[in-house]
Amino acid sequence: MNNALILIVEDEPEISDIIGTYLSREGFRIVTAGDGTVGLAHHLRLRPDLVVLDIKLPGQDGYEVLAAIRRRGDTPVIMVTALAEDLDKLQALRIGADDYVVKPFNPLEIVARAKAVLRRTMGRGGEQVLRVGPLTVDPQAYRVEVESPTGPVTLDLTRTEFRILAHMAASLGKVFERSELVDACLPEGEALDRTVDSHISNLRRKLAAAGVDGLLAGVRGVGYRLDNAHG
């Protein structure tokens, strides 16, 4: 994890410098961009291990940059925002952010969250492939495939969606409370029920689009359960 390359996309030089300084002290390599266009160019060329992305950017805002990053792949992203409203956070998580920090923040918080996200997304060895009905969940490759008549189809999941699905797949039939899923899959985020609901909704939509219905069930007033059978 040390020596990981972190791309900071922030239009306020002072904030960018502070974040970069604290991350550099922990051994991370840093590259910066002052707007979304430059940030996306760096992302494409340098393939960073993590992106720290401000929402309020000139030109393309952070949501647009995040969506573009997600179209390219699953690079982990921490959003930095002055917007403390739950809906703004949920919007970032829906698009595929791995975590978020609200300004004003302690730079040490950015460092802690960066380390935590990288721990979750790098070097996951020794975990077994899980099979759930037509799904194959590979924790090491961060890949979920659906069996189809023409062969396996890979689902396009965000890292958070993958973590939730893999965590539930390891305990088939167990009913997970929302707080359990937050603790296991979003340990650095605020424990918002709607955050988990949003990720589950995205998972259901993507599973349904791949022809898998009824696998991920809601348990009224409790949480969610992953079953081996599907309709």
Automatic annotation (TrEMBL):
Domain OmpR/PhoB-type: 127-228
Gene Ontology MF terms: phosphorelay response regulator activity; transcription cis-regulatory region binding
Residue ranges: DNA binding: 127-228
A GO BP entry: regulation of DNA-templated transcription
PROSITE patterns for this protein: OMPR_PHOB (PS51755), RESPONSE_REGULATORY (PS50110)
Gene3D superfamilies, alphabetized: 3.40.50.2300, 6.10.250.690, Winged helix-like DNA-binding domain superfamily/Winged helix DNA-binding domain
Keywords, in A-Z order: DNA-binding, Phosphoprotein, Transcription, Transcription regulation, Two-component regulatory system
Domain of life according to the entry: Bacteria
Cellular compartments per GO CC: cytosol; protein-DNA complex
Chain ranges of the Response regulatory domain: 5-118
Keyword Phosphoprotein annotated: yes
Protein's UniProt name: DNA-binding response regulator
Protein's organism: Pararhodospirillum oryzae
Taxonomic lineage of the native organism: Bacteria, Pseudomonadati, Pseudomonadota, Alphaproteobacteria, Rhodospirillales
